[in-house]
Design goal:
By secondary structure, the chain is mostly helical. It has a domain of 34 residues. 67% of the residues lie in helices and 0% in strands. It is built from three helices and no strands. The longest helix has 27 residues. It is flat.
Length: 64
């Protein structure tokens, strides 16, 4: 179990990081950045074909 002092130290550190992140976010949007770029770009999902085939075989075509 963590001591009270250690918990407070960790909490202060996380608060500091959150403030830094907020400043970085503000600068990003002020310089013309978009929300998509801030979050790391668009997410492209590729399906695992073998996994999907096994699911279909197990569950039947009616349930996908």
């Amino acid at each position: 179990m963590k001591s009270r002092a250690e918990k407070e130290r960790i909490e202060k550190q996380l608060e500091h990081l959150a403030r830094q992140r907020g400043i970085e976010r503000q600068r990003h949007f002020e310089s013309g950045g978009t929300l998509v770029k801030w979050r790391g770009g668009t997410r492209t999902i590729t399906t695992n074909r073998k996994k999907q085939q096994n699911k279909r075989a197990c569950r039947g075509k009616w349930n996908g």
